[in-house]
Structure formats: C-alpha cells, structure tokens
Design a protein that fits this description.
Helix 1 (7-32) packs antiparallel against helix 2 (49-65). It contains 10 helices and 13 strands. The longest helix has 26 residues, at 7-32. Strand 5 and strand 6 form a beta hairpin. It has a 6-stranded mixed β-sheet with strand order 3-4-5-6-7-8, with helices on both faces. Strands 10-9-11-13-12 form a 5-stranded mixed β-sheet, with helices on both faces. With 307 residues, it is an alpha+beta fold. Helices cover 32% and strands 20% of the residues. The chain has helices at 7-32, 49-65, 92-95, 101-104, 121-125, 200-208, 220-228, 244-256, 290-295, 299-304, and strands at 38-39, 46-47, 70-73, 111-119, 133-140, 143-151, 166-171, 175-177, 190-193, 213-216, 234-237, 260-262, 283-286. It has 2 domains: 7-177, 2-Layer Sandwich (Fructose-1,6-Bisphosphatase, Chain A, domain 1); 185-304, D-Maltodextrin-Binding Protein, domain 2. The protein binds adenosine-3'-5'-diphosphate and magnesium ion (MG) (3 copies). Residues 51, 74, 116, 118-119, 121 line the site of one magnesium ion (MG). It is an enzyme of class 3 (hydrolase). It comes from Eptatretus burgeri (Inshore hagfish). Its EC number is 3.1.3.57, 3.1.3.7. Mg(2+) binds at residues 74, 116, 118-119, 246.
Length: 307
C-alpha cells in the first residue's frame, strides 16, 4: 500500500477494493439461491447470509490493514464467523488524489467507518437486484467526509456481455466519481422515496413536495445514486427508519458533488462514534434546489420527527 498517501485516502482506497469484492459475494449468494433470510425486527427488517458474510469480511479486512480504525456496522454478527479473505485491489485513482489539507491531518484512530454491508435487503430478497448497494462511509470529526458505494447488479438488465456492477466514490473537497451525472429531464420534480417502509407521514411529506412523479425504490444508497444521475430531484423519507450506516457514504458522495442531505428540519447529520444510530428526524436530500424542498416540509412532519 502506498504508505505516503494520507491515511484517509488509503482507507478509502482499500474500502473501494473491499466493496468490489463484497459485490462479488452478494452476486454469488444470489446465484446459489439460498439467501438464509432471518427477521430482525419483523418482516420489514430482514437480514440475509449476504448481509452477514459481507459485514464479517469487510470488518476483518479493515481490521487487518488498519487496526486502529473504528468500524460501526449494521449487523450484529460474531467477529470470528467464517469471513471471506477479502483481499481487494486498492484503487490507484483514489491514492493519487491530492487530499484537502484539513482531511490529510486525520489519523487512523480518528476515522470512523459506518458500514452497511447490504443496503436494500428487502429488495434483494424480492429480486429487485439493482436496488442493492454496499455502503462504506468515512466520518472525521463527526462529519461524513468520504464514501464508497458498490452496486453489485448495476447493468443486470443490459443483457449478456454487459459488465455487471460498479463502484462510485467521493471525498469532500475532491468530488464524486464513477457515475454518469445528468440533469432531470424537462426540469420535472421527481421525488424518490421508500418502496417497502411507507406510512402516512412518509406519503404526506412526499405529496407536500408537489411532485410531477414519485419513484419508489429500495435502499438509501440507490436513492442517492438517482439524485446524482438525474433520475430524481429529491430523496424524501419522513421516517426515523434509516441509520447512520445508510446515510454516511451516500451523504459524503452527494456533498462532494455539490448536493445536500439533512434531516427533515434541515439539520446536518452527525457521525461521531457515540451518536445515536437512528436518523430519527428523517432524511431529505437533493443535488439542486435543496431549500425549495426543505421549505415544503409540512409542519405536521416536523412536529412528528424529532432529532
Ligand atoms: N421502518 C424501518 N425499519 C427498519 N429499517 C428501515 C425502516 N425504514 C428504512 N429502513 C432501512 O433504511 C434503509 C433504506 O430503506 P428503504 O429501502 O425503505 O428506503 C434500508 O436499509 P437496509 O436494507 O440496509 O436494512 C432499510 O432497512
Ligand atoms: Mg437492514
Ligand atoms: Mg441500509
Ligand atoms: Mg443493510
């Protein structure tokens, strides 16, 4: 590993390789056909063999290379288990970047990794494969500063010969990479929201945005990808359902690309290691016109969701 690069870039570069290998595990488990589904807190909160194995493997890999790094992952799995030896290749593209001065000071023991080994689990179990992502977010001084998103089944509808899967990454002050930026067609207001965790408050808030179209898809990572690729104008989720591992990597990439992700009151999300995991005041994000969407959040939503 290029020992001369700042540790933040070295960790992100390793995370890039690990996320690619994680994507291979997720594809393999799907092709084997036995997902090993268990319910965590009811039928809407599932865990599969892929969630468990990817978390164990990434945690083990990062611990071997960065022993002082603190990793907080979604799944409660044994540290030992039978993780795969994830020796992913490092991203030279990341290692060669010039790190913003503020971030280049970060020490290994000051970085927090927020890990969602498989985002969009419900959709994974239902075969909506391109909703699934692996999210590895890096926080420094309580802020989401860098992230990697692997989308294991990207392109799976493109037919034989198409390259399956992709990895998107970003760092504050450097930018966002690995995706196809695009504008929203015809200046339309397209709201993207949950597919499997709706309720009245979630739907009221979506309606208050006065959308031309509502897109319901799984995964926090997938929804932020839709914002940066011009498929949606705003990600609106008036629910305490997401956790820090859902938002850290997507937020860092969106912010690096010039967008904004906050709670329903417009408060920044915090990522220090002792923070409450739940994003209890919901999630609102947009690449452009963020304030317009924030101003449309209705009073009953604000009253119901407390930070
Ligand atoms: N009511 C709820 N209970 C548990 N998890 C929830 C939830 N609402 C959202 N989430 C989690 O937030 C992420 C995005 O949700 P959604 O796809 O509905 O937009 C998913 O992450 P995971 O798939 O990693 O668990 C999902 O499980
Ligand atoms: Mg989950
Ligand atoms: Mg998730
Ligand atoms: Mg998950």
């Amino acid at each position: 590993m290029a020992a001369s690069a700042p540790v933040l870039l070295r960790v992100l570069s390793a995370a890039y390789g690990a996320a690619e290998r994680a994507g291979e595990i997720i594809r393999r488990i799907m092709s084997e056909g036995d997902l090993g589904i268990v319910e965590k807190n009811g039928a809407l909160d599932l865990q599969t063999k892929a969630d468990r194995l990817v978390q164990q493997s990434i945690v083990g890999y990062l611990a071997r290379h960065f022993p002082a790094l603190k990793v907080i992952g979604e799944e409660e799995v044994e540290a030992g288990g039978s993780p795969e030896l994830l020796e992913g290749s490092l991203s030279d593209e990341i290692l060669q970047q010039t790190c913003p001065e503020e971030l280049s000071k970060a020490q290994e023991n000051e970085l927090i990794v927020w890990l969602d080994p498989l985002d969009g689990t419900k959709e994974y179990t239902e075969g909506l494969l391109d909703h699934v992502t692996v999210l590895i977010g890096l926080a420094y001084q309580g802020k989401a500063v860098a992230g990697v998103i692997n989308q294991p089944f990207y392109n799976y509808k493109a037919g034989k010969g198409a390259q399956l899967g992709r990895t998107v990454w970003g760092v504050l002050g450097i930018g966002g990479f690995g995706f196809h930026p695009a504008a929203i067609p015809g200046g339309k207001c397209i709201v993207v929201t949950t597919r499997s965790h709706s309720n009245k408050l979630v739907n009221d808030c979506v309606d208050a945005m006065m959308p031309d179209k509502v897109v319901r898809v799984g995964g926090a990572g997938n929804k932020v990808l839709q914002l940066i690729e011009g498929q949606a104008s705003a990600y609106v989720f008036a629910s305490p359902g997401t956790k820090k591992w859902d938002t850290c990597a997507p937020e860092a990439i969106l912010h690096a690309f010039g967008g904004q992700l906050t709670d329903m009151h417009g408060n920044k999300l915090e990522y220090h290691p002792t923070v409450k995991h739940q994003n209890s005041a919901g999630v609102l994000a947009a690449l452009n016109d963020f304030d317009l969407f924030l101003n449309r959040v209705p009073p009953n939503v604000k009253a119901a969701l407390h930070p």
